[in-house]
Alpha/beta hydrolase family protein (Prauserella salsuginis), 531 residues
Amino acid sequence: MVSFEQLRSADPASFDNLANKWSRLAGELSSTDSDLASAARPLEGWSGDAGDTARAHISDVRDGYSTAAEYIEKIPPALRTLSDAVSEAQKTVNSVAETVDSNGHLRLQTDGTVRAIPGGPGDMRSDEEKQAASDLAEELTGKISRALKAAKEADRTAVSALDKATPESAGLELEATGDGNIVTPADIPRDASAAEVKQWWDELSPTEQESAIYTHGDVIGGLDGIPAEDRDRANRIRFTEEYTQLNERRDELENLDPSGYSPEARELEEIDQTLRGLDAIHERLEREPTETRPEAYLLDFSTEGNGRGIVATGNPDTADNVVTSVPGTGSNLSKIGGELDKADALLDQAAQTERGSSNAAITWVGYDAPQDLGAATKADFAEDAAGDLQSFQDGLRATHEGQPSNNTLIGHSYGSTVVGHAAQGDKELDIDNAVFIGSPGVGADHVSELNLADGADVYAGTAENDVIRNTPPFIHDNQPINEDFGAEVFDAGEGTDSWYGTSTDAHSEYWDENSTPLRNLGRIVVGESPS
């Protein structure tokens, strides 16, 4: 039942938004049905029992999608009708409230009744005026009562319509998951190692895996040890929903044309920043793959706080060479587009270095990076990120198919500090190459303090004019380009200078096309030694 307070606080627009989402889902299911029909056409010439079985199975699956779309299409009209009814009832209530507010002798009660306030000793009204106020209170109470009754009836009608659109009504509940094939939150090994997660995932049936992806995508999408293709599918579902919601909200705010200092203006600015990053990810996911720039996989993302994003260009589970890049100070979701461009530069250079090589480049904006130089003097951000980065690298090993890949971890600027802290502690960081480029220091004084896999190489390079060279050792310890650190130092070029020598420009030129540092990074990625 709908109470008066519930009616006043209801948001009709939320019903319309839900209706739009259900409409999109119905359209997607119908499109999938059509796609399956197209994919099945080559099977028409397949004769024999196997062909008949395959066609029958595809027909059953298509029927499921078609039926689901048919029943889901019943949901939007019910929600939109409810939205209209609630809006109309709220107009009546608001009109009554305005009348009460303009009349000093009436009061609107929390149960929706309007009461005439008895006159006190100083009340100079005549009996006729007092009676008129009482009559008006009764009339207004009647209006609210009728509005509330209409809202209740609309609510009952919507519930009845939605009940007829359930999976049970469509006969799809068991077909969607099957008895015993549902994965519950308690089943997911959230705190297990990446290897243990991979083992758990492999032991699930295909139907159980689908259940986990579609019902717990927010967990599966970010769980190290889940294969890249499955993480990508889980994350794309969630990404599409958030991306659509934010675009719709931005349109709403832009239509309001908020002033510069209003809460709406601040919200619009925040949404624009978030969408800058989501737009870049969306472009990468939808980009047509080429020989050197393969298909992209969304391995995790978050719009909370400064935002996070982990995107692989190329499948790290099948590539021969896998490189993960960790950016530094100022990195966040809104700026991920520039980091994705660096991944392209690495892939292009790796392909030029070793023709025909199979490579994947991962952009790991997977931590809360310091957003200014003052914060970048602290090790807290790197210490907090170390465990996640180490787990992610373990996940790359656990899910890789066939022979182990050549895994390179590049830390740029404060990102090198993150890599350095991830490589310290009791647990080994399972990589083949650690690359510190433009590094202020990695939280260690010598390579012997880094707990890396046997045979792992440690490389370091900083441009001659990179301003990061001015970082004193008491901030993040010994810079890895120093001879006494023990890393193999490679030529990272000179970089742009300034009138006083070093420059900030030189700090971001390592991925410039045909540059010395990019050529050396390409060599490391494919397993060669830098010059």
